[in-house]
Structure formats: structure tokens, C-alpha cells
Specification:
The protein is α/β, with parallel strands linked by helices. It contains 15 helices and 9 strands. Strands 1-2-3-4-5-6-8-9 form an 8-stranded parallel beta barrel, surrounded by 5 helices. Helix 13 links the parallel strand 7 and strand 8. The longest helix has 20 residues. It is globular and about 55 Å long. The structure holds (3S,4R)-3-hydroxy-2-oxopiperidin-4-yl beta-D-xylopyranoside (XIL). The site of (3S,4R)-3-hydroxy-2-oxopiperidin-4-yl beta-D-xylopyranoside (XIL) has 8 residues, from loops.
Length: about 375
């Protein structure tokens, strides 16, 4: 199956071609391997931040190859898991700030801004919250959690995903412990409390599929409700867990315009492109599929046609991001390389997936070069 090398030119050759085409535009824009000018963060610096999700071993810089690539390519990061409630607040009166503090120090040391993720989410909650059976406890947890966690990192992180995934596909509010016990106003309240605890931090709402018209309408109504209560919301994060050959470009374009018309930043916060079979869209982490060999077709490598389609999809997406570079403030990939992507384990365990711009050896994929060339032509 591994026919990549037969059709795709070796990396060095691609770099050379890219360098030549760049030098056509401007001699100062030459691309060479392993220089900062050849990185995503440098190339897109004038337009938007370029981020990655970081897992705990990356935060602790345990893997030298990952550590090098992160510093070379990205200028902002989102913790993949370590600031979620189940990790940072495991028991009623116990917090665990170890890794979050390390992340903040790491960001400071390397000039990487941190988007903290996430204060209020129905998933990855500690057991004591999942088992709550009365409104008073939920209310107290909600307020303690926000005050303590957002307060600690005020002025130390750039932003918070204050609320994550509060909406259903039809734009109504998703069932959760927060909706059940606090009512629909919990989203506005979360922003109000975070604003108080972390006045120097930008506040975002984050969700998947909110580029789709029905969910988008619900999201716009939610944002307007926050604004009508005179509570601050600075941005919206469209997660961007999309599928090969099915990029919702029209919906994304409409969404960039609709959300920015609300006077807030628009970000793509968890970008990856699923290349494996899946019978649903979006990123509802509770949805699972049973493992089956037919769902894991590329264990020995990605066929050229799929690799090319992936590159084309990323190119089309970034063309759109660049068209609206005045409105898009950040693009964050959900992971550093293919081997570390959560899509190897969700919604089917143990698959070999290829959703990102860097392969398992940390090498740039054809999609990387397409995206970089696009930006070059825009410079
Ligand atoms: C995912 C992580 O990547 C996994 O490691 C974890 O097991 C489950 O959560 N939407 C979000 C992210 O907002 O926090 C999720 O991250 C992916 C979907």
C-alpha cells in the first residue's frame, strides 16, 4: 500500500520546487528547509496565529522530535486534555495544577501563547460532578471551578474556551449536568464569572459543526444573548473536525461572515481532516464505532490519491482562511503529527489515521507544501 514515494517527489525535491516558485514572487521569500521562514508560523504571521494541541508528554518536552517541530512551526498552543475539569479539578476540594503550570511556563519560555481549554464542558468531568443530584452543588462547583481555575491563570494565558459544545446539531441547548441544574443561562453565567475572575483573558465559545446553518443559528443566538447581558465574549472557535472530500467551504465562508458581524474574533480551533471511514460527522466524543478491519484500510500507508485529496482539501480551506485573513485570528491543528492525533483512537480504537500536515516521522506532507505555497502567493 505504501506507494507514496512512487508518485510524490522526495521532500528535498519539493522543497527545491517550492523555493523556485517562491523566488519567482520575491527574492526575499525563498523557502528552504529548516529555516524559520519555511515554517507555518512565519509564513502566516501577518495573517493569523498558527497553533497546535499539546498532550502532556509534549508539554513536558519528552519527545525531542516533537519538541523541535512545535517550536519551529507553531506560535500558539491549546492543551489537548490537561486543563479539562477531570484533570485539573479531580475532587471537590482538590485541584491539580501541575501540568497546567508547566504549560504556562513552557509558553512563556518559548513565546507560545496559550489558549486554555476548557472551563465548562459536559465531557471529561470528574466523577464527583457527574454524580451530582442537586442544583446547589452544581452551582457551587460551577462558580468555584471558574473562579479558582480562571483566576489562577489570569494574565498568564491569552484566552479561555469558556464554554465548549453547549449546542445540539439543531441549535438547541445540549443536555448536560449544567443545563439540567442551572438552566439555559449557564453559558452567559460562565462568561460572567470568567470575566470577573480573569479580566485580562480573552473569552471564547468553542464548538464543532457550528459552521452548519442550524447549529450556527443557535450559536449566533447564544452569542447575542451573552452580549445582550452586557457580558464580554471575544471570540468564537469553530473546531473544524472535517472529512476528506467533504469540506463545507460554503458554510465556513458564511460562518466567518456571520460570526465576525457580531464583532468577535473567528478562529478555527481543532483542525483535522478525517481520511478514514466514519458514519457520522462532527466530534461528539461520546459517539463510538465498533472496531473492524474495513474501517482501518491504510495501516501500511496512505494511497497517493487520498494523500492528494487531503492536500487539495487543506489548500481549499487555507485559501478561504486567507481570503478572510482580516477576520480569522487563529488556526489551530488538533495535534502535532499524524501519529499523535486523537483520531487514531476515536471513534474507533486502534486505527492508523492521517489527518494532519506532518506525518509519523514529523515530516511535512504534500498538504503542508500546498498550504505554504498558497500563502507564498498571497504575500
Ligand atoms: C479530545 C482529545 O483529543 C482526546 O485525547 C480525549 O480523549 C477526548 O477529547 N472536541 C474538543 C476536544 O473540544 O477537547 C476533544 O479532545 C475533541 C473534540
Amino acid at each position: 500500500m505504501n506507494v507514496m514515494n512512487k508518485t510524490f517527489l522526495p521532500i528535498s525535491a519539493i522543497l527545491l520546487i517550492t523555493a523556485v516558485s517562491y523566488s519567482d514572487c520575491s527574492s526575499s521569500k525563498k523557502i528552504t528547509s529548516n529555516t524559520s521562514a519555511s515554517s507555518l508560523k512565519e509564513t502566516f504571521k501577518k495573517y493569523f496565529l498558527i497553533g497546535t494541541a499539546l498532550n502532556s508528554s509534549q508539554i513536558e518536552e519528552k519527545d525531542p522530535k516533537a519538541a523541535e517541530l512545535i517550536l519551529q512551526q507553531f506560535n500558539t498552543a491549546t492543551p489537548e486534555n490537561i486543563m479539562k475539569a477531570e484533570i485539573i479539578h479531580p475532587e471537590w476540594d482538590r485541584y491539580n495544577f501541575d501540568l497546567a503550570d508547566k504549560l504556562v511556563a513552557y509558553g512563556k519560555k518559548h513565546g507560545i501563547s496559550i489558549n486554555a481549554h476548557t472551563l465548562i464542558w459536559h465531557s471529561q468531568l470528574p466523577r464527583f460532578v457527574r454524580e451530582m443530584k442537586d442544583a446547589d452543588s452544581v452551582k457551587q462547583y460551577f462558580s468555584n471551578h471558574i473562579k479558582t481555575v480562571a483566576g489562577r491563570y489570569n494574565g498568564k494565558v491569552l484566552s479561555w474556551d469558556v464554554v465548549n459544545e453547549a449546542l445540539n446539531e439543531d441549535g438547541t441547548m445540549r443536555k448536560s449536568v449544567f443545563l439540567d441544574y442551572l438552566g439555559e443561562n449557564f453559558v452567559t453565567e460562565a462568561f460572567r464569572l470568567t470575566q470577573q475572575a480573569a479580566p485580562q483573558t480573552e473569552l471564547y465559545y468553542n464548538d464543532y459543526n457550528i459552521e452548519q446553518p442550524g447549529k450556527r443559528a443557535g450559536c449566533i443566538a447564544l452569542i447575542k444573548k451573552i452580549q445582550a447581558a452586557a457580558v464580554r465574549i471575544d471570540g468564537v472557535g469553530i473546531q473544524g473536525h472535517w472529512h476528506l472530500g467533504k469540506m463545507p467551504l460554503k458554510e465556513i465562508e458564511e460562518s466567518i461572515l456571520a460570526y465576525s458581524a457580531l464583532g468577535i474574533k473567528v478562529m478555527f480551533t481543532e483542525l483535522d481532516i478525517e481520511v478514514l471511514p466514519r458514519d457520522f460527522s462532527g466530534a461528539d466524543v461520546s459517539q463510538r464505532m465498533k472496531s473492524d478491519p474495513s474501517l482501518n484500510p491504510y495501516i501500511n500507508g496512505l494511497p497517493d490519491s487520498v494523500q492528494q485529496q487531503l492536500a487539495n482539501d487543506y489548500e481549499a480551506l487555507f485559501r478561504l482562511f486567507l481570503k478572510y485573513k482580516d477576520k480569522v485570528s487563529r488556526v489551530t491543528f488538533w495535534g502535532v503529527n499524524d501519529g499523535q492525533s486523537w483520531l487514531n483512537g476515536w471513534p474507533v480504537p486502534g486505527r492508523t489515521n492521517y489527518p494532519l500536515l506532518f506525518d509519523r516521522e514529523f515530516k511535512p506532507k504534500p498538504a503542508y507544501y500546498k498550504v505554504m505555497a498558497l500563502a507564498g502567493n498571497n504575500l
